[in-house]
Amino acid sequence: MPKVSDSFTKARKQEILSACEELYETKDFKDITVKDIAEKTSMSRASVYNYFQTKEEIFLGLLKREYDEWIASLDALRTKNDHLSVDEFADAMGQMLAERWQLLKILSMNHYDMESNSRPEMLACFKVSYGRSLAAVRECLEKFFPGMPAADVEDFLYAFFPFMFGIYPYTFVNERQKVAMKAAGVNYVFMTISEIVSRFVGTVLEGWNLIAPRKGEEGR
Prior knowledge:
Elements: H1 6-24, H2 34-39, H3 45-48, H4 55-80, H5 86-99, H6 101-116, H7 120-144, H8 150-163, H9 167-171, H10 175-184, H11 193-207
Helix pairs in contact: 1-4, 4-5, 4-6, 4-7, 5-11, 7-8
């Protein structure tokens, strides 16, 4: 049997992940099967199982890819900007995560199932990307807010990352939910991903009384 190159294996995995991503744009996790994913690729269902043993592993791979792309955006933000105010950093974080809505959707719905039903080696590979995302946000905070105590940086991380799990269900509300909230007398205020992330980041950072200029205050 001919040896398969690493580049071929990587390309096949990416094809599977892209098929899963496309399906997840219109269907829920519970409604997607490995057969559905295979039908959107050039492979058979049996071939898909050569790369991922469960549907959860495929979604975990997709989540890893989402984290990797977010990390690339964080690194670009850090390297392309010498200074950012609290507002500018908050807005940038909001815009980045608005582009990564699939990441937020997976986190809100399937995270526990994915980790519980994936092989240890797949889970460890994902955790590397998760750890790198923590480091990327930490490095941004350390660069743009050098006076921020290390303990406050860690507090921000362990407030922000759990907060990410609730962003998608708060910003994507279906008609049934709207009707139910109206019937219950809940005064729901719609916010986009960008708005809710920017408000959270800005409020938390300002709460630590950071010495950083707001928009329009530079040089005062």
